[in-house]
Amino acid sequence: MAEDFDGVKILAPRATVQRMTRRHFMAGSAMAIFSGSVLLAACGEDTQTGGGSESPSAGGEVEDQLNFFHWAEYDDPAVFKDFTDKYGAATKIDVYASNEEAIAKLTASAGTSGYDMVIPTGVFIPQMVSLDLLEEIDLDRIPNFKNVDEIYRDQPWDPGNKHSVPKDWGSTGWIYDKTKVSSTIETWNDFIAVAQGEASGKTSVLDTPGNLAGIYFWANGINWATTDQAELDAAEEFTVNELAPHIKAYDSYPGIALTEGKYALSHAWNGDARQGLLSTDEPDRYVWGLGAPVTELWMDNWCIVKGAEHPNAAHAWIDYICDPKVSLTDLAYHGYNTGIIGVQEEAEAAGLEFLDMVFFSDEQVATMDPGAVNEAQQRLVDIWNKAKAASA
Predict the structure, then answer these.
(1) Residue 363 has pLDDT above 90, yes or no
(2) Does position 102 have pLDDT exceeding 50, yes or no?
(3) Above 60 in pLDDT, residue 3?
(4) Residues in contact with 167: Cβ distance below 8 Å, sequence separation at least 6, in sequence order
(5) Over pLDDT 90: what percentage of the chain?
(6) Half-sphere exposure of 182 toward its Cβ, with a 13 Å CA cutoff?
(7) CATH assignment of 65-167+297-360, given 1.20.1730.10, 3.40.50.150, 3.40.190.10, 3.30.300.180?
(8) Where do runs of H (alpha helix) occur along 170-252?
(9) Over 60: is that where the pLDDT of 5 sits?
(10) HSE of 167 in the Cβ direction (CA atoms, 13 Å)?
């Protein structure tokens, strides 16, 4: 079945979780406007709770607009539509592929970007605060903050949640097509061997500096927050000269592309890999693997951009998305743990698919490392740029 959205036909996939592919929805445009079309809510549930343009939590009347600077393919369009129905604020999204790209653009605009919300990974928040890119958040205006599990609050990068509220968290691994890759991939060294072998020229890697260099560090038992020059030199030698020539694309959202046949092997975040499985009628053809023996742990966060023109709408959004019902709808779509109390139990009760790719065991979490943004960051960016040139 299909929905027509502003002239774009969106196909609903086979999954019981009826979600739209953000990749296709945003194709050909860096801007998407969600305001007034009928969209399918995940799980078949209607998250709308009524109309109106005023929210006590937002500290007054909600403005008629809310502008996001956001990762692509990251929230259910139904959630944006229902927010607009509830508060009257049309939502606009401009997208970025990496934290570095977002920070560079916000820094260059010096408070005049026109964005209200940005969604950085936690370890980048101290840098953004030091650059004066973020407004402080008034948690008193976000009563649903009480639904955020305490384990996800008060992180080292933002004590007291002065500038952020957790959005979701996840990890990094790989997904591959068994009809194109005969080898079993269980470790990062296996991933490298296949990328240089039977998946050469058919492999994608995440389009972020840390994740790209992380492949080498994780495979070799090196802390991926290293600042050791010899280790960074070795990472550059491997990434640029040994891995990059085999890479087909730098793609932060490869899940659906892989199941459509564009890649044989993809370096992927768990939620995006899950989207690939949800989009195909042959999920058993593909294998997801969580990076081993060590991999990433990241947490993305809702933040208000310095100079935001719609601060009431921004606070209203954060409060809205922390509602458990809305959170479950969004989780069903993006496939990441939202950290909302009880959401795992609700997801299981709703019969959502591939939940082993959403909720990780304590043993799995123990293998994950959040890394850090430090003085080696520019070197990682340089490696990333050189690798792209070598791939081309």
Answers:
(1) yes
(2) yes
(3) no
(4) 119, 299, 300, 301, 302, 321, 338
(5) 82
(6) 2
(7) 3.40.190.10
(8) 188-196, 209-219, 229-236
(9) no
(10) 24
Burial label, 324 (beta-carbon count in 10 A; 0-12, 13-18, 19+): middle
pLDDT band at 111 (very low <50, low <70, confident <90, very high): confident
Would you kindly state where each structural domain of the chain is located, as residue ranges? Answer: 65-167+297-360, 172-296+368-391
Q: Which CATH class is domain 172-296+368-391?
A: alpha beta
Contact 253, 72 (CB under 8 A): yes
Instruction: Say what the pTM is.
Output: 0.83
**Residue 370 exposure: Cα atoms within 13 Å on the Cβ side:** 14
Q: What is the C-alpha separation between 124 and 380, in angstroms, rounded?
A: 14
> Which region holds residue 176: left if phi is over 0, alpha if psi is between -120 and 50, else beta?
beta
d(CA 288, CA 290): 7
- For residue 365, count CB atoms less than 10 angstroms from its CB and return exposed for 0-12, middle for 13-18, buried for 19 or more: exposed
CB-CB contact of 170 with 251 (8 Å): no
Q: Around Cβ 11, how many Cβ atoms within 10 Å?
A: 12
Q: Which two tokens stand for residue 279?
A: 């989009």
Rg over CA atoms, the chain: 20
Q: Sign (positive/negative) of CA torsion 296, 299, 300, 305?
A: negative
Residues 6+ apart with CB under 8 A from 391: 244, 245, 247, 248, 250
